[in-house]
Amino acid sequence: MGVKITDTTMRDGHQSLLATRMRTEDMLPIAEQMDEAGFHSVEVWGGATFDTALRFLREDPWERLREIKKRIKKTPLQMLLRGQNVVGYRHYADDVVEKFCQLAVKNGMDIFRIFDALNDLRNLETAIKAVKKAGGHAQGTVCYTISPVHTTAMFAKQAKELEEMGCDSICIKDMAGLLHPYDAFEIVKSIKAVVSIPIQMHCHCTSGMAEMAYLKAAEAGLDIMDCALSTLSQGTSQPPTETMVATFEGSQLDTRLDLEELTHLADYFGEVRKKYAAFEGNVRVDAGVLLHQVPGGMISNLVSQLREQGAQDKLRDVLAEIPAVRADLGYPPLVTPTSQIVGTQAVLNALYGERYKQVSKETKGVVLGQYGQTPAPISAEVLAKIGGGEQAITGRPADDMAPEIEKARAEIGAQAKSDEDVLSYVLFPPVAKEFFDWRDGGAELDLENSKLAAAIAVALTQNQGHAHAPAAESNGHGHAHDPWKSQGRGRALRG
User: Is 301 exposed, middle or buried (0-12, 13-18, 19+ CB in 10 A)?
Assistant: First the structure.
């Protein structure tokens, strides 16, 4: 049996490279062909897509899921779920987690990759149970990071615990691109020795090591790897699907995927990418992450924060502060929301010229246990300085939270047309309210982009036997006219 591939193009690919701005209308025309490609699963939802759809794109994320499911019928759909944070940035009560998982399955979701920013497995319990009860596949996740307390034995122990909690598979999530190839081999080998369920790996190419990490992990018995089609791969995205397929071709690990068909799919997304040029980030390889462990996307956020304060010259100080803050906070992996918390506190330390002279509410929450148990204990000195004398909690944070759904239902009232609307409001109250106001105003998206995307998909289908996208059309004046470029000022770039 060869290694399997999950395609991330329609979720993490554009989230990593295009600020999560790809619209549903650019996914639907190619969805049926994605379904025929033979992927293990297609990641289309979760992560930042839920927030961005409502906040910037004026799209209902639930409708996106339903429309994709109508077209991708054979291949399982996959999402990223932040455990007790669901798809938001704080802990929600158990009733929210349970209802969200139930509705996600109802609307078409199959596989839920469930993680916690602190690797506190207590924060995964409710989501795992809810997904299983709803009939979904629960994939328990271990977030990879490097610190004195994160060892191969620790990752294997957590993977075993996740299996015992009822997970159907395990994911090793390397969100910062820090995983060395030989460490990938050892971690997969160690986890394989203690679990009997499939193991999947998710790496970002930030450091330039991801493809090598995948190769060594596959040699150790990895079952599934996350890749993005080449036109939305590498940089801070995942390794290119075509490259990994070619790497294993003819070996015992052969993916059995068709390179020509994959190239056709990549051509489509290559054209789509042009529409979102305004949201292109810094996609180059950044080997500096191997030293400071700060993901590329996090650095761009830090630069933005410093620019707002007129303190761009403080970036080096901030990068020096991040390892110190992370150590003080118990070595959390740098993933949403801990990456933002550690980064913001490092900025405050650099701006004030003194560590913890100004403390964010979120930093205080971490040391007081409000996000869960940190990988390493918080020292008494740090607790006293940041916690302000308050007592830290030691239990699961959600145990102290009252149910939220019915209160939210009463608040939003008739503007919520469905249970899905109520969940959107619970997760992002001001953002969802603004979306409902816009929707109630009778606003409609123009159909020009949708029609154009469909036309391009038809053209690509007709040219499926060729390795390149169809030639640009003539505009009648003797010059080639690229229809995608005319969309550069359209709705897709607003927000």
Answer: middle
Residue 397 DSSP label: G
Which tens digits make up the pLDDT trace of 373-432?
999 999 999 999 999 889 999 999 999 999 999 999 999 999 999 999 999 999 999 999
Phi and psi at 409, nearest 5°, equal: -60, -40
Question: Which two tokens mark 254?
Answer: 């052969």
Indicate the Cα dihedral angle 169, 232, 25, 51, nearest 10°. 60
Q: Which of 77, 76, 25, 81 is nearest to 50 (CA)?
A: 81
**Tokens standing for 490?**
């359209």
How far apart are alpha carbons 437 and 493 in whole angstroms? 21
Instruction: Please give the structure tokens belonging to residue 140.
Output: 């328990």
Cα Rg of the chain (Å, integer): 22
The pTM of this model reads 0.88
CA angle 198, 201, 205 (to 5 degrees): 165
Residue 296: both structure tokens together: 């590329």
Q: Which residues contact 359 (CB under 8 A, 6 or more apart)?
A: 345, 348, 386
- List pLDDT tens digits, range 355-382: 999 999 999 999 999 999 999 999 999 9
Cα distance between residue 153 and residue 413, in whole Å = 50
Q: What is the dihedral of CA 116, 117, 121, 127, to 10 degrees?
A: -20
Rounded to the nearest integer, the mean pLDDT of the chain is: 89
Task: Judge whether 180 and 209 are in contact, CB under 8 Å.
Answer: yes
Nearest-angstrom CA–CA distance, 152 and 159? 11
